[in-house]
């Protein structure tokens, strides 16, 4: 595989949590931090996107597959761009489950984000029963292939991937560093069948109960390039310690 120029990235997904006070705390925490070797992205609920001052990069937790129109409750890529949003989480397991988002819909959303020159954080991952029955690689390959068919391998140069074992999200269970590395290596290898260089350079985040005390070991794995952080991103000190682990 060709040499890579991957840079560590840590994205905090607040989900349906947070308030104005948390926005202030996070901004103060990161204004004082020196993190030169990695990128930090905060993905707050929509109403808080306009409150950030530009010290951290911003991401959205979701996007409409439509450009505009009669879609009550939806938000477009053009609106996000007006608030300096650079990243969009697409296909998070909670949206796939709670909102019945199919891989085909996820692929349409990825296409919208790419067309707006924003960066999709495309989430893939398996539930516990799929891991237990040994079909997790087929399951993840199918999630990736639906997007590959829609946008093509060349567009993956502008995508960040996030591997989230669904059984480890918010459960306190974490994939071991070896388990995380095994799946990250599979994902990179799957993309390499179509383009070695894109596979070598794509950033693949791990998401699933990452905390300050396990981040360094997870991030030191060869194919793990940072994290998509849920609960710990709501505590500015914990989140900063995770970012510092990536910065090293």
Automatic annotation (TrEMBL):
Subcellular location as annotated: Cytoplasm
Gene Ontology process terms (BP): gluconeogenesis; glyceraldehyde-3-phosphate biosynthetic process; glycerol catabolic process; glycolytic process
The protein's enzyme class: isomerase
Gene Ontology molecular function terms on file: triose-phosphate isomerase activity
Pfam families on file: TIM
A single Gene Ontology CC term: cytosol
Residue positions binding substrate: 13-15, 170, 209, 230-231
SUPFAM superfamilies attached to this UniProt entry: Triosephosphate isomerase (TIM)
Pathway assignment: Carbohydrate metabolism; erythritol degradation; Carbohydrate degradation; glycolysis; D-glyceraldehyde 3-phosphate from glycerone phosphate: step 1/1; Carbohydrate biosynthesis; gluconeogenesis
Residues forming coiled coils: none
Keywords: Cytoplasm, Gluconeogenesis, Glycolysis, Isomerase
PANTHER family in the cross-refs: TRIOSEPHOSPHATE ISOMERASE
Subunit structure: Homodimer.
Purpose: Involved in the gluconeogenesis. Catalyzes stereospecifically the conversion of dihydroxyacetone phosphate (DHAP) to D-glyceraldehyde-3-phosphate (G3P).
Similarity comment: Belongs to the triosephosphate isomerase family.
Protein name: Triosephosphate isomerase
Organism expressing this protein natively: Paraglaciecola psychrophila 170
Upper classification of the organism: Bacteria, Pseudomonadati, Pseudomonadota, Gammaproteobacteria, Alteromonadales
């Amino acid at each position: 595989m060709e040499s890579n120029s991957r840079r560590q990235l840590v994205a905090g997904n607040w989900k349906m949590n947070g308030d104005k006070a948390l926005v202030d705390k996070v901004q103060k925490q990161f204004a004082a931090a020196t993190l030169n070797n990695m990128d930090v992205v905060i993905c707050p609920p929509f109403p808080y996107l306009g409150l950030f001052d530009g010290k951290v990069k911003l991401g959205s937790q979701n996007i409409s597959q439509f450009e505009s129109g009669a879609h009550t409750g939806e938000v477009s890529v053009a609106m996000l761009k007006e608030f300096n949003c650079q990243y969009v989480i697409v296909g998070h397991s909670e949206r796939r489950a709670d909102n019945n988002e199919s891989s085909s819909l996820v692929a349409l959303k990825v296409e919208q984000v790419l067309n707006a020159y924003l960066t999709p954080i495309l989430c893939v991952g398996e539930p516990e029963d799929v891991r237990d029955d040994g079909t997790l690689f087929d399951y993840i390959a199918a999630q990736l292939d639906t997007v590959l068919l829609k946008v093509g391998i060349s567009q993956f140069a502008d995508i960040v991937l996030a591997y989230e074992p669904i059984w480890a999200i918010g459960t306190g269970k974490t994939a071991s560093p070896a388990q995380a590395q095994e799946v990250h290596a599979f994902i990179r290898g799957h993309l390499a069948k179509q383009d070695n260089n894109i596979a070598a350079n794509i950033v693949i985040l791990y998401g699933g109960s990452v905390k300050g005390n396990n981040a360094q070991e997870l991030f030191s794995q060869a194919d793990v390039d940072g994290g998509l952080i849920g609960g710990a991103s709501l505590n500015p000190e914990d989140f900063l310690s995770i970012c510092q682990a990536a910065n090293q």
